[in-house]
Amino acid sequence: MRANATTATPDGDAYRLVGHKWFFSAPMSDGFLVLAQAPGGLGCFLMPRLLDDGTKNAFRLQRLKDKVGDWSNASSEVEFCGARAWPVGGEGRGVATILEMVMLTRLDCMLGAAAQMRMALAQAIHHCRHRSAFGRLLVDQPLMRNVLVDLALESEAATTLALRVARAVDAAPREPAEAALARIATAAGKYWLCRRAPALVNEAQECLGGNGYVEESMLARLYRQAPLNSIWEGSGNVQCLDVLRALAKEPATGAALLAEIGAARDLHPALDRVADALPDQLAQAGPAAARHLVERLALALQASLLLRAGSPAADAFCRTRLAGEHGLAMGTLPVDLAVPALIDRALPA
Fold first, then answer.
1. Separation of alpha carbons 18 and 14, rounded Å
2. 153-166: per-residue pLDDT in tens?
3. H or E segment to which residue 311 belongs
4. Does residue 71 sit in the same domain as residue 188?
């Protein structure tokens, strides 16, 4: 953001924007938030499509992007040719201003990833409850059941985390502790859920076999769409470095996150061990290890939420995601955890 070369020159009560933007999201909109270099530093500006007299503002859409997915939501390249725009926040405060919006859109990415996981899981379970192979329904085949239970664990944990962060974001304007939690958990959750969604969708495709790879199946669309949430509003590295930035500059964020995880103290030994190690890990965290740290934070937060909610999935989640009773691929649960009840729990009400 700070390397932005678009300029904003004062012009009466407005500014004139000149420059180019490689990715210009939702070009069909009536207004746009644009970062540009003003005399006092990087600022955030509201640029309308149409001016007060009804004429089109001075910017040109150069081309639409031919994206892997997300086809119904256009993206483009744009050139600003002296477009009029009005400041949102002061000069030099562009990043801080845009981050207020980004918290909401990062939450949207989390909710989207959780929803994609839930839909992929529903498609996989439905197929396996109706498709027979080797004399039995797929859902009754032990190895397929292991996969489905693993997907169900991941999906429930994702939904639980996304909704908890949504609650924190909603309460942030009136509750400082929730604001601190929202500040750090949004970045951590956005990183982790958006990282997990593509792997889960691909695993769900395998449950359908070739049917999951044809356009008649919803899984093909989900497969194209799933990687996008990890890319826009800041890719994985951006989220992890933002967590480190929050820990360094806003100590209340780390305290809020540890308190949220610690609220499940003594409910599971695996979580207790992780929680005991986290304070030192937060204090020693550096950029090279940021992904590992944020992964542990997200998993611990998911485990704490599942345990406090009394979820039947909580013990299996803690044993596999925190205590290491799991392989590197989905469907590698210990045999005693691959119970049909967790598949039934994932079915629509």
1. 13
2. 999 999 999 999 99
3. none
4. no
